[in-house]
Structures are given as structure tokens and as C-alpha cells.
Protein 1
Amino acid sequence: MKLSVAANYEFDLVAQLAGSPVTEVYGKFAADAVGGGRPSYMGTPLTKNDLAVYVSLLNRHDIAFNYLLNSSCLGNREWSRRWQKKFARLLESLGSIGVRRLTVSTPYLLERVKAAFPEFYVKVGIYAQIDTPRRARFWKDLGADALTLESFSINRDFGTLRAIRDAVGGELQLIANHPCLPNCPMQPYHQNGFAHSSDGSRRLFLDYCFLSCTLRRLEDPSLLIKAGWIRPEDIGFYETMGFEHFKLLERGIPSAELLQRVKAYSGRRCTGNLAELILPYGFKRPPEKPRLWRLRHFFRPGQVNPLKLKPLYTLMKSQGMLFALERSPFHIDASKIPADFIEGFEPRCCARLACADCRYCEEIAHNAVTIDPAFQRDQSAHLKKARQQLIDGRLWGV
């Protein structure tokens, strides 16, 4: 087992990761010329010197740093001389501080890096949507050193996983602990929103997709089981198929939570609340943010009336997104998930099944998943109201 773990840039955590199966830590600046897979407001503000010190510390513990250039869309800026110069300066700067690994999600960026900066080991990110042997072969032939497979959709499609493993050699990575909706129809829209909210343009980003999928989970708790996460206990099942690289989310979360995830997966066992390993927010200790970060990221004169953002701000706070939350309202009792849980998907292909006809996940959720009733009731009402504000255009006075 080899783990790639999210960076939160807290130096004390690095020594605690040493000696574990963590071989790589991934992250990026909150914004850069390329953009990435999370909006800037979720990123940790860093200077080049901050990153240099962090990368050096990781190197001393034989842990690589992977810089994310995983934007799914560059907005056609990549065809301008100005962007090309910015991109070259960024990679030269990263190389000068010891970064030797990158993650990309577009074919052009892979070819551009390999042509101009062949010293980098380049991994393809999940936003490339590698979900067939043909797509995997395309990226390998283009020069990729490693591939992240489309874990949202195929982590439990074992026929596809085996076919991809047979089709290409080298490093294939699976995301082990994501909570996303299976085969999420909003994924392309969501990742493009992230791309344009982390490219330095400072455009306002209101996360319609987050509101929508959170509401769906509250209304249908079985989605917490249907999400294609991998239990720590089931890592060995994937290893028998030839997979040894696993990525753990989420960037910016507290060190104690990241360490809990590393320990659970390296120990191949989860006790208690499995939701603590997969949800990206709702922690007792809030992520550290710089002074006035709310003003910087959400108040845009001429774009939206800031007073109308108060319901969204209140909703984020009550969800524990970017704020502290005393107790997680979501509970997945690990002891009530069947020991042969993963084997139950072997005869099934979820992409070709109607959940109403199968009900495997629904039955497990009935026994294992609980959501605080007051939270479920109140937050459902708030989420519906916030979504409707976006849909009706009321934030802009339409």
C-alpha cells in the first residue's frame, strides 16, 4: 500500500506521517495561472517560501510533494503569450524549490509539461475521467507516468478496474475516501466551477453543486453508502487486483483528522464512525483562514449584493464547512457494515442497475447510517431555500 495524502501545510504533521505508507503529499497555492480542483477559498494561503520550507521538510522524511495543476478548464487562456509566460515561470519556480511531481487533468498540459519540463513525474488527475481501458491507454501513450482512475464511478466496478489494470502498466491510483454521488451528473459542471474559482481571476464562486448534493444526501441517506469509497478493511481486495496506490482526501482539514485517516487505512481497520474518514467538513477544529478571507472571496462589488449572501454564509457555518462543528450530524456505524460488504458488489454492475430494483445499499444504510433528526430537518429546509435563491436569480436582483 502506498498513500497519497492531502497537504494542510502544518509542519508538525509531517514527522507523524514518516514511517507510515505515505509516499506523497499533494497540494498547491490557493490560486495560480492554471487553477485546480478546489476553489481558492478552500485553499491555504502560501508564499513561495512557505511552500519551499514545507517541500524541504517532506523531502527530509522521504515523502514527495505533488503540485496540483489539475484544473479541468483553462478558459482558452492557455493560447495567449501572457499565460504561457506565467505557466513557464510557475514550473521553473516549483522546480527551484524541489518539486518534482505534478498532477494534470488536460491532455495539452501533459504534453506541454513533458515537452518543456521533462524532469517532472506527471500524474493524471481524476478530472480526466479515466474510466475505460481505452482512456487509460490514451493517457499512457501521451506520456503520463501515473493515472488516477475515475473513482467516483468505477471504484466498485471490478470488471472495469481489472480491464484497466490489464491494459496499462505502472502506477494506477484510486481515491479511497470520497463522499461524492455515484456517477455524479454534476461532476463536469462542478469541476469547471472549481477551475475558474482558483485561477487568480477572483470571480465569485457560489457552489450550487455542493448545495444540491448535500440536500440529496440529507433526503436519501443511502447515498452515503452508494458513494464509491473504499473501506480500510477492503484495501486488500483492491491489492489482489493489482492496485497499491490510494489517495486520501481532503485538503486543508485539521492534522488530527488527516492522521486519523492515515492510521485507519494503513491499519486497514475502521471502528466507530466511518463518516469521519470520508466527509470533507464538519470538524471540531475549524480550518485556519487569514484575516478578512470572507471579504476577499465572497464580497464582489457589482456582482452580487453581499447582504443577500448571509443565508449562504449561515448555511455553510451550520454545516461545518470552513467552520467548526462540535459534533458531526452524520454517522455511519462501521460495525454495522457487513464484513463481506465489498464482495456484495462483485455480481453487480451499479452503472447498469436501477437502485430501486437492487436495494443492496439501501438495506445497509437502514442499519448503519443515522443523521441527527433536527439537523436533517432544519438543514434540508435551509438548503432548499438557498438553492432556490440561486435558481431564481434573487442574489442578483433578477
Protein 2
Amino acid sequence: MDCALLPGLLAEQLVTRSHAGIERVVFSNSGAEAVETAIKFARAATKRSRLCYHAHAYHGLTMGALALNGSPEFKRGFGPLLPGATEIPFGDLAALRKELRRGDVAAFIVEPIQGKGVYELDGERWREMQAAVHEAGALFICDEVQTGIGRTGKFFAFEHYELTPDIITVSKALSGGYVPVGAMLTSDKILRSVYSSMERAMVHSTTFKGNQMAMVAGLATLSVFDDEHVVEHSAAMGDLWHHKLEALATRHEFLHEVRGRGQMIGVVFGPPTSRTAKLRWRAIEATRTAMFSQTLVVPLFHRYGILTQVAADNVNVIKLLPPLIAGEVEIDIFVDALDELLSDAERNSGWLVEFGMTMAKGALKRTRTASKSSSVA
């Protein structure tokens, strides 16, 4: 319907930073909208309806994106969603091939590094899955809403694994976090399967897509990325995160693993081996599954002013998503704080058990209240 200057300039910048098969950009207002766009375009391009997604996946909470959510608690209460959406166990190539053989899969949508749990696959497995999708005539979609725009030490996380997705979705960091903006990147062929004639010029749109403020914010963000080498900085800080947290893991039994790339880090906790510490772990976990990591998140904020989050429900993983400009000073602040908390937990678990029980009681009370309200209604 139009050919505005600023969306064209930002689209050009995004295409330039993508692989050779990406030629077109459709703007939106959020990551979920970008995923909805990807769903529609994949169906139109393949003339198929079904989509596959990974267990633990998170692609947004609008209707189509919610159907591709790998966490049942998000879907509960909303009735039938996208028909035929099929969950694939994370990294299960055989399960994916089984679904693809049915011949009705339009696309397989993935996060190159999963936000819920910071789960990763090796490059060979990713490439095998992409090849299987393409051999079946389906599209391979990389949801880079969280992992893209420098977060993992590459502009797009799929670059770590030498992938060439047919569709890419982005949002979040594209405007520096200041203005709502999202985008779907794809090939000219896929775009023209939707916008195939003048009569179909408005079959997909959204009111504020490509608005001037969002486009200026996106252009300014990418300019800063280039001028201040933000992507390279993110990669260097990823190495530092691993170095310092893995050193911490050698001193604390509760800290089991550090995973992730760039400024997207998962700190994994698990049961210790020594008898006393193991009893403390069991006491906390008996109140609620994965309560240990919850008991760290709150004091990290109250004691040290550090805002973190548990990576997903029922997993003992704290996810770190610091500003991309965070450096060694900020890393040391977090590592020192975690060191102190874990030392306290090992020396005296009284506060830890009490806090865990308080959290569990509060959650139980809320559940009972919600259940009572539901039965009254």
C-alpha cells in the first residue's frame, strides 16, 4: 500500500545482517506479532496447515503463538488453540522426522537457545533438523525474539550453528527496549506467496507497524551496535561469565553447570554430594519442586539489588539477561553476591529452609483461594 522511507531503511539494515536467503521484512509491534506473521506466511507459502515446535518452547501468548508454547500452564483455560500444532521433544530428530513424513507440516519453529531453561543443542543436531525440514518441503523458522540482535554474541544466535532459516522473527532489543517493535524476516518468494496481487495487499497488516518512532529507534540501535561493537562485547562477556561462574562451581556443591552464550546465561543448581548439604537440599525441594533457585532469586534482589529470574517453572536454573553493555564490573557484582549466598546456604541453612517454607505456604494459599473463587463462580 505504500513505500515509506524509514521502514525501507531499517529493513535494508536487517537484511544486510542476515544470511543470503533473507530478502524481505514485515514489521510488527511485538515478538508475538512477528510469530503470528511467521505462522500465516508459512502456511501460505507451503499450502499446509500444521506446525511443529519444541518442548519447553516459548513463542508468545497470542492465540497462534500460544499454540506453539511448550509449557501447558500457559495454555490452560483458553480452550482449543491452533489445530494440529505438534510438540517435539527437544532435539529429538526421529520424532521430528516422524511428523514430517505425514506431509502436512508447514513449518518447524525453534529458538536457537531456548529461553525457558537456557537449553542448547550442538550445531550438528541443529543442521540435521533443518535438513530434515527442508527435505520434507516445510519451512524452518528461527524465533530470535530473545536470542537475536546480539544477545548471544552473534547478531543472530543461529549463526553459531551455521543455520539458514527460511523465516526469522525479532523484537525486544531491536529498539533498544524503548519502543514496541518487531519484525519477520524472510525471502522474496515467501513474502510474495502472501502479497501475491494488488487485491491481496492488505491481507496481513497491523495498525502501528513501521511507525516512524519505532523505525528511528531501530536504526539508532543498530548504529550504536556498529559504533560501539556491542555484538563483539557480548561475545567477550559470555566467555567471562563462563570463566567466573565455572570457577564458582568448583567451590560450591549446589552449583552444577553454567550454560548459554554471550549475555544469555543459565546458572544450573542441583543436589550436592555431601551428607549435610544434601539434607538441606532435600528440605528445600520438599516444599516445592525447584524451590532452591527461587530462594536465591529473592535475596539476590533484596540484599544486592540484582534482578534475576528463574528460567522456567520446576527447573533449578536462574537465567541471566543483563543489558548488552554490562561488563566485568557487573559480572563481578553478581558472582560475588551468588558466592556469598551459596556460602550462607552451606554454613547455615536455617534462613534457607524458612524462606522456602514461607514461599511454599504462600503459593499454597494462593492456589486454595483461586480454587475457592473458581468453585463459587
Protein 3
Amino acid sequence: MKLTEFSAVDFRNLRRLRLAPNPQFNIIEGRNGAGKTNVLEGIFLLSSLKTFRPGKNKDLVRFGTQSGEVRAVVEHQDTTRTIRISISPKGRRVWIDGKLVRSAASALGQLTAVLFAPEDLSLTKGSPSGRRRFLDRAIFNRWPGSLDAVKRYESALKQRNALLRTDGSDALLEVFDEQLARAALRLSQWRQKYIGIFHPILEETMQLITGGDLRTTVMYEPSRLADTHDQWVDIYRKNRRQDRARKSTTAGPHIDDICLLLNDRSAKLYASQGQHRALVLALKIAEIRLLKQELGYAPVLLLDDVSSELDARRNAQLTTFLNSEAFGGQVFITTTDRSWLDFDSKSTCFRIRDGDTSEH
């Protein structure tokens, strides 16, 4: 899977940008604030229909303009698809090969992209919300249909919490408990299914990165153990008094976590800074390896200035993996200084300055 064209018009600070990407390595170089990350965000938007940064639709449109768009031509398995997304304060619209897409589900899966950003380096020692986000994004890349489970759960949770805040009746809560239980069961099933496939790949990847010095274990850590719809309903009923007191739902996938162990000890509590970096690198490489194993092709990889955040050893390991046949995918990487990078003749460098680009 590769992008052969990418363009952006009035997207963030990108006025009229057009790239003819290299099939292997694309270096997006520029000063801080020049618009490098906006290029990656545009590609990510085309793959997932959402961005990886906070903000409303109006924040995605260049200041002083009414609308913007991103567009890409994607080649995959002898098929070429053109994806275009227009953005305005009123919403987003998606076109596939010039035809307006009526449902998000039919637009998903046209482009698979994995993001590795500096924020990911706090993944193993940060809050559970970051690990849940990593897991749900990874599941989405493998099974785009899982997005429906996430949306249904978020909607049901929002409605139940709104009812708790307004002291709604038990009769109404019974209705929302049923809805939330169905959504919680489905989302937790997706997560456990992914972890089951992911764990051995992560274990092997960590062994390769550390030369066998560190063993890693990843487990899904639910806030409550429930394997059926009825068990989830029972949990919400038993928690009702506590939930009313706190005016929010106190159990469910929205507070679950991933437990990561290094040599049978909690990585969050006991890992050194170097071990945290090794584990994050292993998590991202394992995610890519899983996709290639399951889908038969490598995703497009988006690296947002990660090279300046990793130490020399981890940079070398990442570069070795990206240059290997085990990956074989297309990479877009941002940097303020391309001397950090070593991709030889396999790369094209695009210089971004104030939302405009030049190739050199």
C-alpha cells in the first residue's frame, strides 16, 4: 500500500501543497511551526476520517478561508483509489474515486496508516487513557469495522452519564444499562481479541530489540470481569448507587488499561528510561508487524519527529527495521534536521516553509 500523490488545500496552514511521494522514504523537513505535522495529519485523516490532534473542524481550515481539503491517490494490490476529504465548519465530506460517500463505514479501509509521534514515548508510563487510545487505534487498523463498537460505547456512555448527572429515574437507567452493556461487551471483545494476537508478536519483537535481555508481557486489564451481556447489566445495576453519588459510570471499557510487564515486573513502576523507550519502540514495530502478518501488506508509516526523541541506539534499531524486508512499506517522517536520518538514495526530502513545499 502506497501513496503516489498527496495534496492539501487550505488545510491547517497548508495553502496549496502537492507531493509526489517516494515509494519508500519521504522526509518532511522544516522549522517548528512550518507545517510538517500537518502533512502527516492530512494523511492520517484520509486513513481514519479523524485527526490525531484535538480541535474542531474550523481548526482544520486555514485561517481566513471557509473550507479546506486533503486528497491522496493510493495504490494497493494493482488497484488505484483516489480519496478526498473536504472540511468546513459544518462538517466533513468524503469522496472515493470522485463519488460522494454516504456512510463512513464504506470509506474506511481504503488507506491503512500507523502513526508514531513523540507523545507515544510516554505510552508505557503515562495514563491508561493513552494506552486505551493506542489499543483502539491498532484494532481499527486491523479491523476498521471495530470503529462502530467504539462509537456505540461512547454514545451509550455519554447518555448514561447525562442521566446520572440529572438524577434520572431507575426505570430510565435500566434502559441505558442494557444499551451500555451491549456496547461494553462488544468493545471489550474486540480488545481481548487483538491482545491475543498481539502478545506473541510483541514478545518476539522485544526479544529482537533487546537481544533477549528483556521479556515482555502484555495483558488486557479490565475494570470489571464480564464475559456476557447479562454480567455487564448486573455490574451496572450493582454500581448504581455509587454511580449516582459520583454522577458518572464507574466501571467499563472507558477505564480499562493494558498491563505491560518487563521480566515479570510492572514496566510502569520499574522500567528505566531506556527500557521505556525500548518497550514503546517494540509496541509500534509489533503493531506494524501484526498488520503485515494479518493483512499481507505493510501500512503507511507516519513518524512525527520521533528520531530527535529517541536515543542513538533506538534510532538505529528503528532505521534497521524500516530498511528491512520485514517492513517494506512507505514512510513519511518529519524532522527539523534531516542529518538525524540515514535512508541513503531510497528517500525524497520535501522542505516545508510556511505551509509551502519544495523538493530537494
Protein 4
Amino acid sequence: MKEDRTNNLLGKDLRVHIIGAGPASCVAAINLAKAGIAVVIHEQKSDVGSRFNGDFQGIENWSTNMDALEFLSSIGISINFLCDPYSIGTFYGPSMKEYIIRTSRPLFYLIKRGTDSNSLDQGLKQQAIDSGVKIIWNDRIKHSHYQTTIIGTGPRAADVIAKGITFRTSHNDACFGFLNNEIAAKGYAYLLVNKGQATFATILYEDFQKTQIYFQRALETMQSVVKIDIEKPKDFGGFGNFILNQDRNYKEDVLLIGEAAGFQDALWGFGLRYALLSGYLAANSILTGKSYNQMCSEKILPLMEVSLANRWLFAHLGNLGYDKVLKIASRKNDILESLRKQYRPSMFKGLIFQVSKLSYRSRLVDKQCMHQNCDCIWCKHCKESSEFKEALTI
């Protein structure tokens, strides 16, 4: 990306246009609007969260010392959505031995994605509207005279995919995790239960063409150890982009945020902090004239690079290593410090990053799929959207 403008834009007749109404975009919009800047969000869908299905995700609480709730407050976000703390989880490795993982403070805060009223997406949308942000729905960007633009159109490639179900259940609130390459290629499977609703999914980092096979194996594995009733199941699929998209020539007033910039956790896909922070930094750049690129380089990229190094290390553990790691983790009274240590930049992680970045490339086209009108999770969404291309020509 080219260097940002350094002129302070406060006090000028400025209108900021944001492409996409995802979480990162809403955070940027909220902070700009609260500072008195006119903000217009252009969203090609008729509502936010439409690419999700009410599935549970998490805001991780281990990469920094700042609690996630404190972090949200620091970037101007209040809690008007489901955001429940989870401090204990039950995990299984390939041996199917049970390991209990405990933490002294929440390991993550469970949130919901989608169009439900208590979802993160709807909560942030409402905060944006309450702040005075104008949202234009079903708008695919036809204008060419925008002065300043933020692009938050979401992932542009499928570097990781999720296949799962949401359902109703009478099971108590719980968190289960599964590490086994037979059910989640170089990834993991998880079950989250909250107030009678549940999400079960397998997360794949490779072998995408066998998604349904992995999911069925994962579901059978989960049901062999968790006695849970499944009512009204609904299928869902998702994808993520964790490869940094910095190799393009953007206009100086175009700021990429969230997964449009590849801001995602490469290890486990807990990248909401990165996305939300990038939206805040984009707003801060416009309000203060500070370089957005420089702020991202200081506050996001180091964690991104460490997470990619962690991804490479995790992928090389294999099934033989998963049980060993879980056994060590279960012996600790609190694993948060150990996890936090894994996200600290170091000379070792820097060397691993140099190796890992050669191993990972975004799957903009998956040559294993030759269908013209297929419904594959990994290639249905992996080509750059027309919305994104149009935004770059603004």
C-alpha cells in the first residue's frame, strides 16, 4: 500500500465512504461519526451478517494482557450483543483422551454472528446508526468521486474454511475442542453451547475438496464422547483470509481493513481483535493524520507474523504431537500466560515466520475444482469480488 496522507483532516469538509458493513467497517464508522465526521457505509447486501448463520465464534483473550472487554471499550465499542466469557474447555486429541483446560480469566468471549438481534454484526450496526452513520443497502459502488474510502469487504480468498451446523439443544453451556487431522486437516473441530443453542464445526486449512467427508467424521467423533441432543440443525459454511494483501498499488486515500487486508489470526482463526482494531486505526488515521500503514505495522503486523509462525509450527505437530500438547496444557492451572508467550515476537518466531511465509499463499483459485457453477465453500467466494475491484478504481 502507498503511504497515507499526513494532513490532519479534522475541521475540513470531509465525508468518509466505507465499502462493506462488517465489524471492522462499523468500528471505523462509529469512531469517525462520534468525532463529527460524516460517514456513509455502502453495503451490497440488504443487512449485515448475512453471510453468517447464527453460528458462535469467539473474541480471543490470550494474545495480549488487555482483557477483550477492556479492548472493546478502548476502541469505542459498547456491549449490546451476546458476549459471554468462557474460562474452561474440554479437549480431545487423536487418542480421544479427555483433557480439561482451565484459565484464571476468560479464555475467550463467545459471540454470535449473523442477522439475529443479539449478534455482533447487528449490535455494531445499531451502534453505527445511533452514532449518525448513514448506511446505504444493496449498493454495489457506482460512484467515482469519493474523497476518502475505507474498504472492509471481508475475505478475498479462502485460506481456511469452516463447515458446520447450528442447532438447538438441552445441553448445558460448554466448550469442546478436537485436534485430529482425520477430522480437521491441519485445523480443529469445536462445539460451543450457549443458552440452548449450539455450533459445531470443523476447521480445515487444507484438503478443502474433502470438506463433507471431514465434517461427517468430525460429527461422529464429537457424538462419540459428548452426549448432546441435536434439534433443528442448520448447515453453514465459512471461510477466512489470513494472508496479508499488501502487494497492490492502492490510491492514497484507500485504507484496507479487516480481512480485506488479510488481518486474521493464522493459527486458529480468532482474528476479530485484528479486524476491529484495524477499523479503529483507520478512523484514527483519518482523524489525526497519522500513517495507517505505520500504525498497522506497530500494532497488528507483529501479531500477524507470529500467528503465521505459530500456524507453521502447529501444522507440523501432526497427530503425534497433538496429544502431547494437550497433556502439557491440561497440567497447568492457567494456560493463558503460556498462550500469551506464544504470541510474543521473538528471534525464533521471526525465523519461523520467514520460513512460513514461503509456505502459505492465498488460494485465489483452487485448481482442484474445475466447475463453472460449483457450490464449493473454498472457491465460491475466493475470487475477488466486483465490489472490491470497483472500490479500487474509485
